[in-house]
TrEMBL record:
Its EC number is 2.1.1.-. InterPro entries: DNA_methylase_N4/N6 (IPR002941), DNA_methylase_N6_adenine_CS (IPR002052), RM_Methyltransferase (IPR001091), SAM-dependent_MTases_sf (IPR029063). The lineage of its organism: Bacteria, Pseudomonadati, Pseudomonadota, Gammaproteobacteria, Lysobacterales. PANTHER family: RNA METHYLASE-RELATED, TRNA (GUANINE(10)-N2)-METHYLTRANSFERASE HOMOLOG. It comes from the Bacteria. Keywords: Methyltransferase, Transferase. This is Methyltransferase.
Amino acid sequence: MSDQFLNKIFNGDCREVLKELPDNYVSACITDPPYNYEFIGHKWDDSEIQRRKERIKDSKTLVKNIPYGSGLAGGVRNDRWYKRNRENILEYEDWCFQWATELFRVCKPGGTVLVFNSTRTVAHVQVALERAGFYARDIVVYRRSSGIPKGINMQKKLEKLGHQNPEELDGWHSCLRSEWEAICVLQKPLKNNYTETLLEYGTGLFYTKMPDGGFQSNILENIKRDKNSDYNVHCTVKPLDLMNKLVDIFVPRTKGSIVIDPFAGSGTTLVAAKNYGINYIGIEVEPSYIDIIERRLLESSDLPKSLALF
């Protein structure tokens, strides 16, 4: 095993950093990359986050993560709008394919990859990773505790425009209330079957036994939110209980097991891996987040979990 990569965070573009890792090296990947709204036309770094926050600080807008000026934040739904929207999706899918190609190389056979994404574009992420060689296994539903409608309330819109009988459009909106996020589950092809893959690489299986003895569902809910420390300024921190649960289910607790997060953010995946005594590798493009990750790792402590070595 190449120990120089273990339990470290690397600053850089994961498409380049992944090239430094050996073939068939990591056992699992759990990651939360920028969604395509965040991707188009802007570098995804802290200065861009702050720019967006400032733009909506005194605004009533509910769509706070779409880059202003991207052509996706509003406007007339004409041919140009839909063309730009489609180009954005294809560009995003190609970007996912680029990092997925290197990720495929470094994953062991049977290695499981989990990628968070929006319900609107998770299919494109799955297609990109399938193009890179992965095999689609599932979509896990992370049900959040609440969701806010973000579309048009047509009754109120017509009231403002002075139309007669706007109440006839009561209940008609442009979208549903969103209260879940998609987690795309893929796997690098096995070596012949699950048994051979497990015995040679320690990968391929999911841990499905729940604390009450039941069989684990692919819907994860009733997960409490964290109260983030003042120093953790990342804008999309996932709950630690959620990441602990994903590590528990999808990361093998076998000798030599490694979990990687190519979009480490504030490091929640890495903290969860440390909680389980599992080796981790983090990659993060924004330099200011590295200190956040390292501080969180220092403050975390291993849970009383033991690796099942064989």
